[in-house]
Design a protein that fits this description.
Layout lengths: L14 H5 L5 E6 L13 H18 L5 E3 L22 H15 L6 E6 L7 H7 L6 E6 L18 H10 L21 H5 L8 H4 L13 H24 L8
Helix pairs in contact: 2-8, 5-8
Length: 255
């Protein structure tokens, strides 16, 4: 049990701390509940998004910038994994309704920017932002947290439950990572379509056709030290962005 609430983590704060001053930036971690190879928990995306958001809020507090880390959304778009047991899916249209409600909740209370801290590749949030931005004075920003650190830390970062994600969970919640001897290899089959392989065409990946262990990318190189370094880089960069957003003039965003 922690000795005190973490700075800016909304679900840990009492009302006097929340009402004491405005929160110019809010972070909304958006995860998923799905299989992550044979060694990582179903809540990997949600857990990592929640932890990165909390660390970003703490880093901003050290710079006297109040950033609210909102409770993490544990349901993501998983339409191509529904043949895997206990995959929990929400449709993009449902995400749009949820996000609109969150925006309306935050608008009256001094929030200037809402950062959608995405932790799941299936959450393609740009279309949601394009639809909602004309309706709100909040600046809507998307950050894919796993793109904010230096991938050069890994020989093969992987795409899903590979070395990058595995290292991050080894750092954040090592007790939830299965014994290394049980880890799947994360081998992914390539599309039979030339355009998809070349990258200029796209189709959703039917997960059970792509991979036998639900992973994409070999996790074996992962270490907790890599995870600590990568998460620290991501937190540093995202917190710097949030500090900028706290005072950004929406009418002067380009040079």
């Amino acid at each position: 049990m922690r000795d005190a609430p973490r700075p800016g983590v909304l679900e840990e704060l009492a009302w006097p701390a929340v009402r004491s001053a405005p929160w110019p930036v809010a972070l909304m971690p958006w995860g998923a509940t799905e299989a992550h190879n044979t060694h990582l928990p179903y809540g990997t995306d949600t857990m990592l998004g929640r932890e990165v958001a909390a660390r970003v809020a703490a880093a901003c507090a050290q710079r006297d910038v109040r950033v609210a880390a909102l409770p993490a959304m544990p349901f993501g778009v998983n339409t191509t994994q529904l043949d895997l047991p206990m995959t929990l899916n929400v449709m993009p249209s449902t995400q749009l309704m949820l996000l609109r409600d969150m925006v309306r909740s935050l608008e009256p209370h001094g929030v200037r920017a809402l950062v959608l801290l995405n932790a799941h590749g299936g959450n393609e949030l740009r279309a949601l932002v394009r639809e909602l931005q004309p309706e709100t004075t909040l600046l809507l920003v998307i950050v894919n947290w796993w793109q904010a650190g230096d991938h050069a830390l890994f020989a093969e970062p992987g795409d899903h439950a590979g070395a990058l994600e595995t290292a991050a969970v080894l750092h954040v919640a090592p007790h939830l990572v299965a014994d290394r001897a049980t880890w799947g290899q994360g081998h992914a089959r390539r599309s039979v379509l030339d355009g998809v392989r070349a990258g200029w065409a796209w189709i959703p990946r039917r997960w059970t056709q792509v991979t036998d262990d639900t992973g994409v990318g070999n996790p074996q190189e992962a270490t907790a030290e890599q995870g600590a370094a990568f998460v620290a880089q991501a937190v540093s960069r995202i917190s710097a962005l949030c500090v900028e957003l706290a005072t950004l003039d929406p009418a002067a965003m380009y040079i």
